[in-house]
Amino acid sequence: MITKKEFNEIKHTVTWQGKEISLSTGKFAPHSEWAVTITFWETSLLVTAIMEKDPDESRDYMPLAIDFRESWYAAWKIGWWRFNKREWRPSDEAVLYCRLTDRPLRPMFPKGMVNDTVITISPLSLDGEISPWELSIIGSSAALLMAGIPFEGPVWACRIWYVDGEYIVHMTDSVAKNATLDLHLAGKKWSINMIEAWANECDPEILKEAMKRWQVIIDEICDIQSAFLEQLTITQQEPTKNIYSDEMFTQAKEIMGDKLAKLQEVGEDKKQFDAVYAELARELGEALKEEVANDDSPWSNSKVSWCFFALVKYHLREHFLKTGVRVDWRSAEDIRQIYCEINAIPRSHGTWFFWRWDTQVLSFLTLGWPSDAQLLDNMEFHGEEKRFIHHYKMPPFWNNEARMIRWTNRRETWHWRLAEKALLPMIPSKDKFPYTIRLVSEVLGSGWSTSMASVCGSTLAMLSWWVPMKAPVSWIAMWMMSNKEKQVILTDIKWTEDFIGDMDFKLTGTSNWITAIQMDTKLQGIEVDKLCEMVDRSNSWRQEILDYMLKTIDKPAEKLSPHAPSIKVYKIKPDQVRSVIGPGWSVIKKIIEELWGQEAVSIDFEDDGTVYIGAKDQAVWDKARSIIENILRVPEKWFKTEWKVTRTEAYGIFVEIKWGNVWLVHVKNLGEGFIEDASTLFKVWDTMAVEVMGMDKGKLQLKKA
């Protein structure tokens, strides 16, 4: 006899921001160490965290993997592709969720841990209002703590909007459409360790106030995870660490002595810095060779490598904090040299070459018809039109790497979305500039902050060919360095400084407003007051870069590139759109054929009767408008002409009066007396002399002339 399966589900539910949020375990995924189901309103995710027990001990990094697995069923969809209904490669949104979850979690693991740790996030249900973004971070934090994986949590995440003068704290996506600020934050009590924000001409004071309000919220809601975890019996796991000892560090410091000063001598030359770094590392390895070779010694080559890295980091940090001089001899507030050139490539719709010391970005602008807009279709979006697109490419030669170019990687996806988000608020509306805009930033060399260089390059590429931006956008990349005595904020981070700093803070905007922010840190958190100080300090630095950019071009060009399409707009009545389109787009197709093909002309419509006509020259545009107006012109009463017969029926003859518009000449109006079968009088493709009798309920009344 079959009996009912019994299980022990542990669940903790609270009401937060007027909606229930719950954490539960014990029901799903019984073979994983622990699995947590997090549900907020009707969005639900299953999150598991697994740590490898027998890792490769020679590693010198923490192998953390976040795997957000899209599930079309969670959004009640089968899938868009006709020939395959399985989930395929991750969408851009899924890639971004993985990156966003990684950033606030990674600093919370113990130093030297080398265990593979994999967090799998499986959407079970999406309600279209609560984003899985924040829930992925919260669920991952809970799963790690439940599994007993060493982790300094709990970490919580939430979203704050500023809409119509009010701060709104909850996670419904529909609110964001009219927001001045859409701010995502994550962290633990008393500190923030991740910021991701989009802003529509946001005052810096609004941003600072939002961060302060978030800190109050985070200090309260972290207790939700703690209350859930208190119900569980958790066995703490012991991590495998591969880390140098204090003894090794002291000995390495003595061996190197003043030799590390050579790293300052190379200044801004990346290749030379790498060469000196490699030579000093080899020298330290030779000096400790006997210690490593000793069978009884806990030392290893990987520990020596890690120790040398830490020694260089310590040396460069202390050198700056004592002298105020950076690796490339700049002070804390100096911005590197910049070179700008517009229209560097022939036959483009617009280009801009940006060179900031050894960072090079070449930005390309391409303008297209309204019909070229991208339609989004994935787990969360269906049929949404995207008319501003920014893409970012970073081929291996940027860092002199010998490997093939493959699919777009997560880093590229992350950077193109950041630049796109920064520029989007300044893109003109469709009624003012009806083009589809695509920007591509090609990274030709990286000395860091390539995403920020893409923002500047894309701004000037658009200005160089008549895209009427609301205002030009610039950026600033900042970071912080600290020891026990002081904290220093620096600007314009470069490659030799990224690994020695404590955080990375990017802010984009116009002269007056903020458009995007991104912050992550190697620390477990940054105080809100310090972040507010960085916002204040960023304004003058960002303006300095913008002023230099605008020396190249300070306003949109007066005309489009001769190679770009020309689009003009005019209005018809909404109820006339169907007549111009025709059944199955038949009329539009005939117009385009008449005007020499799709590449010569494009005709698009809005439901409100807006018509977008794109053409290569004025003559084609004039002819397209003339044809449309002729289609919509109602023949006057008693107007006579000859029209083509398209169909014959017993009750009458159908004639095409113009461009696919077909009307009936009823059998009673054929002028032949009683006719049993009108189809015997004409054949398809014959012509018939027809006279307009008038209109009746919107339909032409015709008779044979």
Question: Can you walk me through this structure?
Answer:
The structure is a single chain. With 705 residues, the chain is an alpha+beta fold. The chain has 5 domains: 10-172 and 181-190 and 201-229, Ribosomal Protein S5, domain 2 (2-Layer Sandwich), CATH 3.30.230; 246-323; 338-549, Ribosomal Protein S5, domain 2; 566-632, K Homology domain, type 1 (Ribosomal Protein S8, Chain: A, domain 1, 2-Layer Sandwich); 640-704, Nucleic acid-binding proteins (OB fold (Dihydrolipoamide Acetyltransferase, E2P)). Strands 8-7-9-10-21-20-18-19 form an 8-stranded antiparallel β-sheet, with helices on both faces. Strands 1-2-3-4-6-5 form a 6-stranded mixed β-sheet. A hairpin with a 2-residue loop joins β28 (687-696) and β29.
